[in-house]
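User: I'm writing a tutorial on reading structure tokens. Could you give me a worked example: one chain, its sequence, then its tokens, then a sentence or two explaining what the tokens reveal?
Assistant: Sure. Here is the example chain.
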Amino acid sequence: MTAIRTDHHTIILEINSLDDQRCGPSFWKFNNSLFDDSLFVERLRVNFPKWLDEINFCDDLRIKWDWMKYKIQEESILYSKLKAKERRNRIQTIENRLKICEEKIADSPTQENLANFESAKTEYEKEYHYIIRGSIIRSCATWFEQGERYSKFFLNLENRNKKKAAYESLFEQLEKRLLFRTLL
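And here are its predicted structure tokens:
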């Protein structure tokens, strides 16, 4: 049986577009590898007494504890952004150096030019290795947080990827040596 009059009222729902909304900072996790950086540790040592003086008016230890955590977070984020910017600039400089070395090898494949190229390539791989190590740490944290654990599958996958990268690197070096010998 249908009702002629309903006891429900009309609801109008208006949703603003999310495109207009500014996103705030996402969830932050402390990068404990910063403790290996002596400059960062020194900055904390210098600023720690200043931060305590700023909250000296409060007697509640919980508030002081939260204040110190906030200040450490703030300092960590600023320092990490500074280091990331320096790393990006270093990588950009190395990439430019690699391009110049490749052009020099194409123009005149001398032993000196090849050595400069290999030096720049090693430097680039070192910087890139740092980025990869960070990705691995983040992926391990994700697996841990989502309740997954390391398994033989992931170990075999990692080993297969390492072998593949080693083979590619070996073939790349052989190709360069053969090219260098044919040019001489």
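What the tokens reveal: The chain has one domain: 32-151+161-183. Helices lie at 38-54, 61-107, 111-145, 152-183.
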